[in-house]
Write a structure and sequence with these properties.
Number of helices of chain A: 18
Oligomer: heterodimer
Bound molecules: flavin mononucleotide, iron/sulfur cluster, FE2/S2 (inorganic) cluster
Low-confidence stretches of chain B: 937-942
Distance between the termini of chain A: 17 Å
Radius of gyration of chain B: 29 Å
CATH architecture of the largest domain in chain A: 3-Layer(aba) Sandwich
Strand order of the largest sheet of chain A: 6-5-9-7-8
CATH topology of the largest domain in chain B: Rossmann fold
Number of helices of chain B: 29
CATH class of the largest domain in chain A: Alpha Beta
Shape of chain A: globular
Largest sheet of chain A: 5 strands, mixed
Helix content of chain B: 25-40%
CATH class of the largest domain in chain B: Alpha Beta
CATH superfamily of the largest domain in chain A: NADH-ubiquinone oxidoreductase 51kDa subunit
Number of strands of chain A: 9
Strand content of chain B: 15-25%
Largest interface: A-B, 31 and 35 residues
Mean pLDDT of chain B: 89
Number of domains of chain A: 3
Number of domains of chain B: 5
Radius of gyration of chain A: 22 Å
Strand content of chain A: 5-15%
Distance between the termini of chain B: 42 Å
Structural class of chain B: alpha/beta
Structural class of chain A: alpha/beta
Chain lengths: 440, 942
């Protein structure tokens, strides 16, 4: 497996975020190259690259781009920098360490797709990163890279940074667009998909930060080279953010098909406690949990799907055998109940019920049958809602109850938590506290 | 909530010419492409459980009850948001679906009061109905979790209450407020389980952006939003389809009734004028009909200073007839006359003019339409050939550009305004010509492209300037003009408007409108696609009202914007039956159907039918009647459903005229300003108490149906018939339908109208005759009614009313949403909670010059008189212009308006009066006089 760094090559360098540093390393060369290419040729390279979305769903990026209707203008690009899925921490570091790489990816994408206006929707709790983006944008404008006449070419491009206001649901692509339009972040019914009817009713491409950050490399080295970094229908490398009970938590750039066990046991040095791995959430809090004995799988989108879960946003959360799975699920359900937009009934009414039933079991008040009831509830939510938050909320419940039924039954039988106080593998806010340093 | 008895297909009808065939539960059905599976199922006779979907609103897909299975597709798509496709095979029932639906319902019920038996929606609740069909038998989660039970409600609105514990968060209310009403007053506050319907930051409906249209209440599937009248009285026993008695939109309603008591008025979905929408007046402000102030016994008195004496109908009618005959004997046939109401039915208006022409033997009949839309009749008659708007309301849905002149539809024609706003949100462009920044200049998600904020009284100048741009910039529709208009007249007009003195630049000093705006607006109107003109009293109530109407017609003809959907010239009529009262010949010079009394052939047809000879000489208009009263030649007046003292300009002059008369007969619901000067009071019947028809601003004839018996025992038409009989001219109608038969017989444009047809089709737009048996939605298709369209030059003549150092401000008048005209009805309802007094809008700069602060009492003085009212500082008016409403008699706003009037029709110039404003120490002289009168016995009801 190759050790090529597509995304993190420049991390840790002094002033890596500045235009000067970026240019010194050949930055914006890909944009220059792209501007001399026919626009469909760029899209073709991205298709060949097998780049798949890094925002969670892993949808083929080149294919998504071809869904734009031919004759409707304007078109927009939305860059999803909302990064709020618990356990996920990668986009923010791309922005901090190498914002120009993202901007170059945006510029190439816009040029390739004949888009003249792009929005970067950044999570409200990222003031530092938002400032970094603004600064990089200012530099790029000053240098004539973005703005009127893209690098002197007869092509105008404007990029705006829009800060979110603290709602996880606004990371969902259609809620994001509603929010950009100044409305409440309610996901839209699909179809129509954003590529056809998006921002302000116009065709819109929406991609994750990491997804677009790959584009300069693809243009520079060719789609085939990118594809070769991965396997099958997934090309390139990914940023895996490992947190929880490991010796060396942090961000690891690895080929998309890297082995999960290897990542945890070798790269991260196994559990910090030295105890056995009890459970791993492989792709952000919504991905179905794996038991410790199930983690010898490829993280590649399709391979891990076959194992019943997903590599989603690349947020890997590791728990050792001291962890109470009921308590973890309790926190996870609380998150989704709090973040439900409230638009559709199963999610609005169901997520709080899952939360309270989970809490009830956690505190020893459960009665026999409650675990099944919890499962039944999740089965009535996932797949039946307007947006995927309903799935995101029910997948953990379904997998936790099925794979760790014993934890639930013991709570009910013993009328208490068998793991005792302090049985934490994941803190209440796994996004901040558990995440160790960043590691390139 | 609507009645469960009404079929609700859940999503709006799809507009497509292509049909698709599919099977639902094995039943074949064909629907237009784009139809939802939910609607297709209902059309196939299969009902799918649903809560968030309702026909009036775009599908939302939030309740997830309507999920179905589609063969060959995975998952369970929501039927309300999934369009039907060719060959689909849909299953609406399966074990899996049943489980899912029960799951959803179970979640609802964990957070619902479950006190159905004492709930106001009991028996008519969609949640209840769904629970019944889904067959949930147990709520497994208990009700111990988080809930909204006991959450504080809001009953600040006088007409409806909000109870969050019964809310199922379907957002139907929010969407109704956005999509139907266009007010965007509601939102779902919070997210997830904390989601709560909220009328804005204050959390209370009263005082929010809410205009109390009731759309949200109608849309709510439960009792979360419920009419207070329904809560108080319970579910209705029967429904009666009828037509609103307030404004010229003429909304159709279902009166929901227990016995003879109205439980609520629900806007009818089938009614083409309003398509299920309504405004606060029609929807809620009907309580006046049973207000204790209603006079229900006839009364007479010898002198107006005497107290009223209640008498029998026989005595009252006999006395009135004797008095009228006595006056005629002494002062001639022409010494009496009548005023026809724009509030009464067509049939009643017909009878009053017939009474005048047969029993009185003269043509002294006029209508209060004179104070509003007489110039429309004249102007459109001269140019296009009919005295009516050219379109249906639905036409606005095809308009690309709307030119709105002197009209404030969000207040005066709210239901049409909602339709207009919807079209504007879809992208139609808007030009507003108005001295005030009316709401539509800038409303939620609506903004006028141009606001030509002219000086009051300069409409004609602005319209001619618009025409100048059209002609001189080569934007005229020359082919249309060549084919359809008189060529000579066009050439004369073209030469006239092209003169340099009519250029926007030349007229800018007169109108105050920047020339660039006029040019931009003219180009937009002429080249923006389908362009429609809507105008109101701000056009007609001027000394050049008729000229302005002609200028409007010129503009429409010159740009080819007449004769198809989406264009046209549309007067927004003030009162419910202004159009009808005019159609019915309530004019001193015109017989029904706008035919001159001097036309012997027309007269002959009436003479043959009525068996009397008709006077070929035109009679007196209302202002002439008043003048004649003062010179002693006019002494008896029969005034049905009209209050000229309050509504006619120059109040003092009218009172003096009435004082000079010997017999004033007033027929009304309440004692009025006019009845103070009356000798006979005949109690009237409200629209709920009689059968008949109203004709709205789009020429739509709709049925008014009796919901309860007349409180006074007689409908107005019966009273007129009795008076006629007492005068020796029996009118033996058994039912208003027989009057309509006579109208149809004698009026070519009504020839095809009958009650049977109205019952069958719901409504009819005249002309309705052999050529158009189902009526005529759009006029002048293919050719103008008068043959060739006629252009007429429109020279701008400034109104004699000018500002002077003594009266440096221009006053213009208007109405507000919650009150109606002289307010006789709305003041007797809870609408007072929205607005309890008249206000004077004044620009902060003018206010500062006069040391007037917001809320101060100010005196408004003109050369005619003085009124005192409260000042409201706002930049809606420009400096130099003030604006007043005229809903409350105690204000006496019309005391200050002048006797100026339209040159062609005498329509009074309400919209321009030179005034001065100053801080007031107390009430005006007139107000003190009036109060003194109120204290005297004559002013009061017995
Ligand atoms: C509830 C929810 C939250 C989401 N949050 C994010 C997010 O924070 N960042 C992100 O990139 N994608 C998020 N997504 C995925 C986006 O909807 C979308 O699929 C993605 O931005 C597409 O970009 P990609 O194709 O480049 O991955 C979320 C999806 C859901 C259902
Ligand atoms: S699933 Fe949840 S978050 Fe998504 S639309 Fe429905 S209520 Fe909102
Ligand atoms: S009554 Fe009308 S304006 Fe008021 S909130 Fe309801 S829908 Fe909106
Ligand atoms: S108040 Fe009624 S219409 Fe509005 S969300 Fe609640 S249940 Fe639905
Ligand atoms: S009726 Fe279709 S989701 Fe509510």
């Amino acid at each position: 497996m190759s050790d090529v760094k597509v995304l993190t090559a420049r991390w840790g360098k002094k002033d890596s975020h500045t235009l000067a540093s970026y240019k010194a390393d050949g930055g914006y060369g890909a944009l220059e190259k792209a501007l001399s290419m026919p626009q469909p040729g760029i899209v073709e390279e991205v298709k060949i690259s097998n780049l798949r979305g890094r925002g969670g769903a892993g949808f083929a990026t080149g294919l998504k781009w071809t869904f734009l209707p031919k004759d409707i203008r304007p078109r927009y690009l939305c860059v999803n920098a909302d990064e709020s899925e618990p356990g996920t921490f990668k986009d923010r570091y791309i922005i901090e360490n190498d914002p120009h790489m993202l901007l170059e990816g945006i510029a190439i994408t816009c040029y390739a797709l004949d888009i003249h206006l792009a929005y970067i929707y950044i999570r409200g709790e990222f003031p530092k990163q938002a400032a970094a983006l603004e600064q990089a944008l200012a530099e790029a404008r000053e240098a004539g890279i973005i703005g009127k006449k893209l690098m002197g070419k007869d092509f105008d491009l404007e990029v705006h940074v829009h800060r979110g206001a603290g709602a996880y649901i606004c990371g969902e692509e259609s809620a994001l667009m509603e929010s950009l339009e100044g409305k409440k972040g309610y996901p839209r019914l699909k179809p129509p998909f954003p590529a056809v009817v998006g921002l302000w009713g116009k065709p819109t491409i929406i991609n994750n930060v990491e997804t677009l950050a790959n584009v300069p490399w693809i243009v520079k080295h060719g789609g085939a080279a990118f594809a070769a970094l991965g396997t099958g229908k997934s090309g390139g490398t990914r940023l895996f953010g490992v947190s929880g009970n490991v010796k060396r938590p942090g961000i690891y750039e690895k080929p998309v098909h890297y082995n999960l066990k290897k990542l945890i046991m070798e790269d991260c040095g196994g559990t910090a406690s030295g105890r056995p791995v009890k459970a791993v959430i492989p792709g952000g809090s919504s991905s179905p949990v794996l038991r410790g004995d199930e983690i010898d799988v490829s993280l590649e989108f399709d391979a891990i799907k076959a194992a019943g879960t997903m590599s989603g946003s690349g947020g890997v959360i590791v728990m050792d055998d001291s962890v109470c799975m009921v308590r973890v699920l309790s926190r996870v359900t609380k998150f989704y109940a709090e973040e439900s937009c409230g638009q559709c009934t199963p999610c609005r009414e169901g997520t709080p019920w899952m939360e309270s039933l989970c809490e009830k079991i956690e505190h020893g008040h459960g009665v026999p049958g409650d675990a099944d009831k919890l499962l039944d509830m999740a089965n009535h939510i996932g797949g039946f809602t307007i947006c995927a938050l309903g799935d995101a909320a029910s997948m953990p419940v379904q997998s936790f109850v099925k794979k760790f039924k014993d934890d639930f039954e013991r709570h009910i039988a013993e009328h208490r938590c068998p793991f005792g106080e302090g049985a934490w593998g994941v803190s209440q806010d796994s996004r901040e506290a558990v995440i160790g340093g960043m590691r390139a | 909530m609507r009645s469960l008895a009404e079929r609700d297909p859940g999503t709006p009808a799809a507009r497509s010419d292509r049909t698709v065939s599919l099977q639902i539960d094995g039943l074949p059905v064909q629907v237009p492409a784009g139809t939802s599976l939910l609607r297709a199922a209902v059309l196939a006779g299969v009902s799918i459980p649903k809560l968030c979907a309702t026909e009036a609103l775009a599908p939302f897909g939030s309740c997830r009850l309507c999920l179905v299975e589609v063969e060959g597709k995975k998952g369970f798509p929501a039927s309300c948001t999934t369009p039907a496709e060719e060959g689909m095979r849909v299953r609406t029932q399966s074990d899996a679906l049943a489980r899912l639906r029960r799951g959803v319902l179970e979640l609802y019920l964990t957070d619902h009061p479950l006190d159905c038996l004492t709930c106001s929606a009991n028996g008519n609740c969609e949640l209840q109905a769904v629970a019944g069909t889904v067959g949930l038998r147990e709520v497994r989660y208990g009700t111990s979790g988080q809930s909204h039970q006991g959450a504080a409600g809001d009953d600040s609105n006088p007409y409806f209450a909000f109870d969050p514990s019964r809310c199922v968060v379907c957002s139907r209310c929010v969407r109704a407020c956005e999509e139907q009403q266009g007010s965007f007053a509601l939102t779902i506050e919070g997210r997830g389980f904390a989601s709560r319907v909220s009328p804005g930051p204050g959390g209370r409906f009263l005082g929010s952006e809410c205009v109390s249209c009731g759309a949200c209440v109608t849309a709510c599937p439960t009792a979360a939003l419920a009419e207070k009248s329904l809560v108080a009285l319970g579910q209705p026993q029967r429904r009666v389809a009828t037509t609103c008695g307030y404004c010229g939109v003429g909304c159709g309603f279902e009166a929901e009734v227990q016995g003879e008591r109205v439980v609520r008025m629900l806007p009818s979905r089938e009614a083409q004028a309003n398509l299920g929408h309504a405004c606060v007046k029609g929807r809620f402000a009907w309580g006046y009909a049973t207000h204790p102030d209603r006079i229900t016994r006839p009364m007479i008195r010898a002198r107006t200073s005497d107290p009223w004496r209640e008498v029998s109908w026989e005595e009252a009618i006999g006395h009135a007839a004797a008095e009228l005959r006595r006056i005629q004997a002494g002062h001639g046939r022409g010494s009496i006359g009548a005023i026809v109401s724009s509030r009464c039915t067509n049939e009643e208006d017909w009878l009053v003019q017939k009474l005048v022409r047969t029993a009185f033997g003269n043509n002294n009949v006029d209508t209060c339409a004179r104070v509003c839309h007489a110039p429309t009749g004249y102007g459109l008659g001269q140019t296009l050939g009919t005295s009516a708007g050219t379109q249906t309301f639905a036409s606005v849905e095809q308009a690309d550009v709307v030119l709105l002149i002197g009209a404030n539809p969000t207040d005066a024609h709210p239901v049409f305004a909602s339709r207009l706003k919807r079209r504007l949100r879809e992208g139609a462009r808007l030009v507003v010509v108005d001295p005030r920044a009316i709401e539509l200049v800038r409303a939620p998600h609506v903004r006028a492209d141009y606001h030509l904020q002219l000086r009051p009284g300069t409409n004609v100048a602005v319209l001619t300037a618009l025409a100048h741009v059209v002609v001189t910039e080569g934007l005229a529709a020359t082919r249309f003009v060549a084919e359809r208009c008189e060529p000579g007249a066009f050439e004369i007009w073209r030469e006239f408007v092209a003169r340099p003195e009519h250029a926007p630049e030349a007229l800018e000093p007169v109108t105050g409108v920047p020339a660039a705006l006029v040019r931009g607006a003219a180009r937009l109107y002429a080249t923006g696609g389908n362009a429609a003109i809507y105008y109101g009293l701000g056009v007609t109530e001027h000394s050049q009202g008729s000229t302005a109407v002609i200028a409007i017609a010129n503009l429409a003809m010159a740009t080819g914007n007449v004769g198809r959907e989406g264009v046209g010239v549309n007067p927004l009529r003030g009162q419910n039956n202004v159009q009808g009262s005019c159609d019915m010949g309530s004019f001193p010079h015109e017989l029904p159907g706008y035919r001159h009394v001097s036309d012997a052939a027309v007269r002959g047809s009436f003479e043959a039918d009525w068996g009397v000879r008709l006077d070929p000489e035109p009679g007196l208009r209302i202002p002439n009647m008043m003048d004649a009263a003062l010179d002693g030649s006019f002494r008896g007046l029969y005034c049905q459903g009209e209050d000229p003292v309050q509504s006619e300009p120059d109040t003092r002059h009218v009172i003096e005229a009435l004082q000079a008369m010997e017999c004033v007969i007033v027929q009304d619901l309440f004692l009025s300003e006019t009845s103070r000067w009356a000798h006979v009071f005949l109690p009237g019947a409200s629209f709920l108490e009689k059968d008949g028809t109203f004709t709205n601003a789009e020429r739509r004839i709709s049925r008014v149906r009796r919901v309860m018996a007349p409180l006074c025992g007689k409908a107005d038409w019966e009273v007129t018939a009795a008076l006629s009989a007492a005068l020796g001219h029996p009118m033996p109608y058994r039912h208003p339908s027989e009057i309509m038969e006579e109208i149809a017989r004698l009026t070519p444009t009504f020839a095809g109208v009958s009650y049977a047809k109205l019952d069958r089709l719901g409504s009819l737009q005249w002309p309705c005759n052999a050529a158009a048996p189902e009526g005529t939605p759009t006029m002048h298709v293919g050719g103008f009614v008068r043959g060739k369209g006629r252009f007429l030059p429109t020279a701008y003549v400034p109104t004699p009313e000018r500002t002077t150092p003594r009266f440096p401000l221009l006053l213009t008048t208007g109405r507000i949403l919650s009150q109606y005209n002289v307010g006789a009805q709305t003041r007797r309802t809870e609408n007072l909670r929205f607005c309890g007094e008249d206000l004077l809008e004044i620009h902060p700069q003018d206010a500062a010059d006069r040391r007037v602060a917001d809320g101060d009492l100010v005196s408004l003085t003109s050369r005619s008189g003085e009124a005192v009212l409260r000042a409201h500082l706002t930049e809606r008016v420009q400096p130099g212009v003030v604006y007043a409403t005229f809903h409350f008699p105690e204000t006496g706003a019309n005391v200050t308006t002048t006797e100026n009037s339209d040159w062609a029709t005498n329509c009074p110039e309400y919209k321009v009066t030179a005034v001065q404003v100053a801080r007031a120490a107390g009430r005006s002289a007139w107000q003190r006089e009036r109060e003194a009168m109120l204290r005297s016995p004559a002013g009061e009801a017995p």
